[in-house]
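Task card 7
Instruction: Convert sequence to structure tokens.
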Amino acid sequence: MPLQPENLVGTNANVELVKNLYACFGRGDIPAILAALDENVEWIESANPAIPYSGTRRGKAAVGEFFKLLGQVNVTKFEPLEYVSDADRVLVIGRWSGSARTTGKSFSSDWIMDWKIRAEKSSTSVPTKTPPPSPLRFLSKSNTGSRRDAEKWQTGIPRSRVRS
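Output:
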């Protein structure tokens, strides 16, 4: 069923679940996030060798590893701005900023996450993030990286998703 104008933005139980997950992230309560995920969750963050938390993870333990690796980033702002929902799907538009702990370099980026909810558990999430302006230099101590790779990241929106 396509998204209809009358149900584009809602406060249904799925939107509330996703809002609660973001609140848990804001508090650093990763165990609560993992508890809300389906056992067979697939978490896909666009692969980029310069970003340690990128790649595909399957299962709660692997998603927990994603959050451990994300700890290499000092998140100073994580702001969900708009929620769009229909049936078992919630899209969230937001922005985040921070700095790499290894380099001290700062970033600011918009993002979109696409969550699929089944039986009040998140089984699919498609965090789609627009990367920092120069992602290959963001986490690299040597400030090296392929200009072609950086341009590729800047021209398209990397996709990541979680599926069961």
